[in-house]
C-alpha cells in the first residue's frame, strides 16, 4: 500500500474526474486539489474560495467542476486549464452540497438555510429556488408516498404521478 500526503488541510468532499485517474477534493482552506492516483502528484485549481470549499460536482461532458463554499458561492471550473470560468449568483448562506442533473444542464445546491437552489448552467443563472418553508418543500418532504411516473422533458427531473 502506498500512502500519499494529500494536504495539510481538512478534506471536505472528493470526486473522481472523468479520466478515472484523478481525484478532485474540496479543502477547508478554500482550495480545490487534484490528486493523481497513478503518481501521487497534486495540482490546485487557480483560485480559491474565501471560505471552506464544501460541495463538489463533476460535469464529465464539458470537463468542468462545480464547487460550493461556506459563504454561499458556487463556482464553475475548467479542469484542463485549472481556471475558474464562472461564478453563479450567490446564495444567502453557505452551500453544503451540489448535484448535477443527468444532462448536466442544471445544478442543485442545498445550504444551511434549508433552501435548495437550482441553477441553469447554460445561462449561468438561478432557475428555481425551493425555500425551506414553502409549499414546494412540503410537497418534496411528503414525496415518500409519491409514485414518480416520468421525467420532465424540460428539466430532466422526475414528475409525480399522484
Q: Tags for this entry?
A:
single chain, 162 residues, mainly beta, Methylamine Dehydrogenase, Chain H, four-stranded antiparallel β-sheet, 1 helix, globular
Task: Explain this structure.
4% of the residues lie in helices and 46% in strands. With 162 residues, it is mainly β. It has one domain (11-160): YVTN repeat-like/Quinoprotein amine dehydrogenase (Methylamine Dehydrogenase, Chain H). The protein has a four-stranded antiparallel sheet with strand order 1-2-3-4, with no helix packed on it. Strands 5-6-7-8 form a four-stranded antiparallel sheet, with no helix packed on it. A four-stranded antiparallel sheet has the order 9-10-11-12, with no helix packed on it.
Helix-strand layout with pairing:
Layout: E1 11-16, E2 22-27, E3 32-36, E4 42-44, E5 53-59, E6 64-69, E7 74-78, E8 83-88, E9 95-100, E10 106-111, E11 116-120, E12 125-130, H1 135-141, E13 148-151, E14 158-160
Antiparallel strand pairs: 1-2, 2-3, 3-4, 5-6, 6-7, 7-8, 9-10, 10-11, 11-12, 13-14
Rg over CA atoms:
17 Å
Q: Determine the structural class based on helices, strands and strand pairing.
A: mainly beta
Return the string of H and E elements.
EEEEEEEEEEEEHEE
Query: Order of strands in the sheet with the most strands?
Result: 1-2-3-4
Largest sheet: 4 strands, antiparallel
- The total count of helices amounts to 1
Number of domains: 1
Integer average pLDDT: 82
Percent of residues in beta strands? over 45%
The oligomeric status of these chains comes to single chain
By CATH, the topology is Methylamine Dehydrogenase, Chain H
Quickly name the level 1 CATH class: Mainly Beta
The gross shape turns out to be globular
- Unreliable residue stretches: 140-148
What is the strand tally? 14
CATH superfamily: YVTN repeat-like/Quinoprotein amine dehydrogenase
Task: Work out the helicity level.
Answer: under 10%
The CATH architecture classification is 7 Propeller
N→C terminal distance: 52 Å
